[in-house]
Amino acid sequence: MADSSFKGLAIGGRSLETDDAINFAERYEVTYICPNKHITILPFSSEAEVPPVWECRCGKIAHVRGNTPYKTPKKASRSKTHWEMLTDRRSMEDLQKNLDERLKMLESGKIHRGL
Ligand SMILES: [Zn+2]
């Protein structure tokens, strides 16, 4: 009775779906080596933060080997302040000159202070 419920299904059977329409994320392999010279190769997504160490099957700590493209964690980007953008475009001398001109215009009444 119980046997018939599995009719037609192989244990560990394969899915009928294909991978054709799936775009896998770009990945690369990272090689770790432990003090006992055990080598562990792990695939990581190019987006993933690769850990610098990995626990080996022998229990020792394995380190990234060779020229593995080790990514440093992305720093949170901070937008520039108005002042930083201004000093990127103009030197302090230019800014001082501009300020002096504007102050003279203000004092002479050529321009008015905005409210
Ligand atoms: Zn090991």
Give the total of beta strands.
4
Q: How does the overall form come out from the CA principal axes? A: elongated
Order of helices and strands: EEEEHH
Q: DSSP strand (E) fraction?
A: 15-25%
Low-confidence stretches: none
Q: Give the total of domains.
A: 2
Instruction: Write the CATH fold name of the largest domain.
Output: Rubrerythrin, domain 2
Global structural class: alpha+beta
- Fraction of helical residues: 10-25%
Largest sheet: 4 strands, antiparallel
Distance between the termini: 89 Å
> Can you say what the CATH homologous superfamily of the largest domain is?
RNA polymerase-binding protein A
| CATH class value of the largest domain | Mainly Beta
The number of helical elements comes to 2
Radius of gyration: 32 Å
**Which molecules are bound besides the chains?**
zinc ion
- Average pLDDT confidence is 79
* Order of the strands making up the biggest sheet: 2-1-4-3
Q: What is the oligomer described by this structure?
A: single chain
Task: Report on this structure.
The chain has 115 residues and is an alpha+beta fold. The protein has 2 domains: 24-68, Rubrerythrin, domain 2, CATH 2.20.28; 78-115, no CATH class. The protein contains 2 helices and 4 strands, in the order E-E-E-E-H-H. The protein has helices at residues 82-89, 92-108; strands at residues 27-33, 39-45, 53-55, 61-64. The chain has a 4-stranded antiparallel beta sheet, with no helix packed on it. The longest helix is centred in the last third of the chain and has 17 residues, at 92-108. The model has no long low-confidence stretch (mean pLDDT 79). The chain binds zinc ion. Residues 34, 36, 38, 56, 58, 60 line the site of zinc ion.
